[in-house]
Each structure stands twice: as structure tokens, then as C-alpha cells.
Design brief:
single chain; mainly alpha
Length: 171
Amino acid sequence: MNSDSKPVPEQVNRSTLSRNGQRIVRNGWLNLAGHMLYALLQLVVVFLLARQLGMVGLGDYYTLITLMLIVQLIIESGMGTVLTMSIAQSPDGARQRIAEASGIYSIISLASALCMLLLGGGLFLFRDDTPFRLAILGAAVACSAIQWQRFAAAVFQASETFVYENLAKVL
């Protein structure tokens, strides 16, 4: 501190900035490689699905996937964002908010699964196809699981801090 009782700014160490810059670039490349691998694997999965399911089966598959995404987005209605904001604004009450949100997400998860079963069952009511009924059941379970994944993501995102490593996510 100087004579005016003001803190003296610390000198920025160039090697620290260089090291942090290298980590940002490395993390950016790793993020890009991960996305490229994901896109490649998704292409392989779509190709294999098309070969195995045929034209009608692939259409049914994408109908179920689309229905599942619509149901879980409408039922969730941004609760993950609200949870993240609530925890980030007052971290001291995070345990209580997480406990309350887990109850709400239980209801959301159950509602998603039931809605998927009703819509999927109603959409394909007149089909006498047991494997497809199992697919609807699987989509309902997946819809419920997506809700819990969003809950966990909201909790973890609330505890993130903005440091050099996370700058790559913004860029």
C-alpha cells in the first residue's frame, strides 16, 4: 500500500498471461475436436439407422425424436435457467433451492414422461406394432431423463466462475 492507503495494482506477469493464453487456445481446439467427433459419430448413427430401419422406420424414429424434444422443451419451460439464476444470485441458499428444485423437477420429469406416452400413444394409436410401442416407452423414459440432465446442468452452471479457461466457451 502507498502513503494514501490505496492498494497498489499488481504487476501483470507476462508468463502467466502467456500460459493462460495457451490454455485458452488448447481448450478451444479440444472443444472444436469434440464437436467434430460428435458430428462424425452422429453421421455414422444416422447412416446406420437409415440402413437398419428403412424409410418408414427412420421416419417413425425422427417423428418420435421430434415429439420428445417438443414435449420436454414445453414442459420444462426454462426452469433450468431460473434455477441457475436463483443459485448464482444467492449461493448461500443453494442447498435449499436445489432441494426445492428437485421436487419441481420430479413433477416436470413425470409430466414429460406422461405427456410423451399420451401423445406418442395417441399419434400411433391405430398401429398394431409392439416394437414401436416399446419405442414410445423408451422415448418417454428418455424425455424424463433429459429433464434430470437439465436439472444437473443448471446446478453446475450456477457454480461456474468466469476465469480464463471458460473464456473459450464464450468465443
